[in-house]
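Researcher: Please predict.
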Amino acid sequence: MMNSESESSSLREDRFELASILRTFQKQQQTLVLAALDDDKQNFTLVKMEGSRIRLLPHGNSLLTSPLTLVAEGSEAKIIFSITNIVIVEQHGQQQWLGELVPTFSYIQRRLNLRVPVPLRQAFSIAIHLPGHVELHRFFVDNFSTGGIGLFSRGIPNLAFKQGAIFKKVDLNLGEYGQYKVNVEVISLAPLDEPLVDHPELTHRISMRFLNLSLITQRTFNKIAYTFEVNFNRKR
């Protein structure tokens, strides 16, 4: 079983939710360091939240700018937000910045995709049609996740299957688990380090990621990945 990361982003507008997220991030870390979006060398330590206001301790000789856009990262997400009406306040002999949270912020969720090895089956495949070719180019599934798929190629793949190539509405066949139309992008292509004893005709491995999956398809693929994990790996 392997894991891969992906991200989903949403724009939100709730000052109180933003303050709550920052407090959560601060609890996850002893010191929460915020970076200026336009200057990654300009950093701040979050001192504390005061309602909808935020108190920061600048690192080094930061020039006061208002509004200021910052990036904060937690264990499972990061946010991009702004503060305005910033003033300098004296606290324990330190020059701290006190500003008001702007309600609108970007919330970027990190998702951990379960990548599951699956048994080699004729039914588990992706079929892609290339212009000018009568026969479909078929690849056989090696591993599967919500984010993408690892495949075996029978012989050297066509030159069209190069890194960065995008194919739309290809046929993904997962046997009794369903058939789907998906958009994919080639991430990597390489010959196998060692031949497969039972399948010497499979000579190359190709990795693809899914593009623009609907939320319904993402949920379906996530369920399939966990079903594969239970059916094919945990029973070993």
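Model: The chain has a mean pLDDT of 84.
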